[in-house]
Design goal:
Shape: elongated
Number of strands: 5
Number of helices: 3
Largest sheet: 3 strands, antiparallel
Number of domains: 2
Strand content: 15-25%
Structural class: alpha+beta
């Protein structure tokens, strides 16, 4: 009896996984937004606008452009995820470049006592 119950449960789990896969496949192919407003086109800001991301040339991570550290060298602006990446980059990216912060002020929220 327990064996049959486990088999039925396994079939249900597999059927749900297949269903979710197919729905995601169709949404990705048609460009439709999924649940909770998620879209395959990338991260969204609160107003439904795409958030611009830049790639750190040192570690390869993507950073929100407004929060990235920047360094200008040879007329090119380089974006970094951290001070360590900005100072340990290749000589071309570091030559005479001083990282500067372009971050919005930190928002502090009140906590009730």
């Amino acid at each position: 009896m327990l064996g049959w119950l486990l088999r039925v449960l396994l079939v249900l789990v597999i059927a749900r996984a297949i269903w979710k896969f197919l729905v995601g496949l169709v949404q990705g192919a048609t460009g439709m937004a999924g649940p909770a407003g998620r879209s395959p086109s990338g991260p969204r800001a609160g107003g439904g606008q795409t958030v611009p991301l830049v790639k750190d040339p040192i570690c390869g991570t993507y950073v929100v452009k407004e929060r990235a550290l920047t360094a200008a060298a040879d007329g090119t602006t380089h974006f970094f995820c951290s001070d360590a990446a900005a100072t340990s980059g290749p000589p071309r990216a570091r030559a005479g470049a001083v990282p500067s912060r372009h971050r919005p002020p930190t928002l502090h929220t009140r906590t009730s006592a």
